[in-house]
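ok trying again, last paste got cut off:
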Amino acid sequence: MTGRRRRRIGLRTWRARTPGDEQGQGLVELSFVLPIILLLLVSMLEFGLAFNDLLTIGYASREGSRAGAALANFKSVACVESEAATVDKTVVAAIQRIVKSPGSDVELPDIQQIRIFRATSTGAQSGASVNVWSYTPGSGPDVDPGPGAARMDFSETSHGWNVCSRVNTGTNPDSIGVQLVYRYRLTTPLAAVLDLVGGSQAATITLRETTVMALNPTA
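nice, full thing came through this time. structure:
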C-alpha cells in the first residue's frame, strides 16, 4: 500500500507540471492583464484626441486675442461704443474661423463660452470687466453685413467691458484676454466605461485655453 500511494503521489505531481496546464495558467493570467493593457491604449488614444482639440482652441484664442489687440487703434479717433463694438465681433469671428477651418475636430456647439476680458499684469481677469459670448447657431451678428453674408454662431450674452473704455496709450496699456471654454466629449470606448461608472457627465472634459496680449498703441 505504501508503494502504491507513493507512485500515485508522484504521478499526480508529474501531471501538475504538464505543458498544457502551464498554458492554461498563462491564459488565465492574460485574461487579467489584457483588459488593463487595452484600457491604457484606449486612454492614450483619447488623450491624443483631446490634446489635438486643446491645440485648436489654443490657436483660436491666440487669433482672437491678436485681433482684439490690433484693433485697439480705434482710440485714435473719437470712440462711439456702438461702432467700437465691432472689435469684439471681429475677435469672435477670428475664433470661429479657426474652429471651422478644415482639419479642425472642434465642435462649435461644445464651445460653452468665449470670454473677452481686461487682464491684469498676471493675466487674470480684472474685476467684472468681461464680455461673454455663447453659442447661438446662425443668430449672431454680421461682421461684414452685405448680400450673402452669413451670421456668426455666437452672440454676446453678458457685457461688462466697454470697448471705448479700453486704454492703449501711455506706459501701462490695458491687456486683452481671450478665453475659450470647451466641453470635450470622449469618443473612444473609454466613454462607455466612464458612463457606466460615473454617468454621462463623466465622459466629458472641460478644456480652457486663454491668451493675453497688450493692446497695440495708437498709430
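cool. The longest strand covers residues 125-135. Strands lie at 111-119, 125-135, 154-158, 175-185, 204-214.
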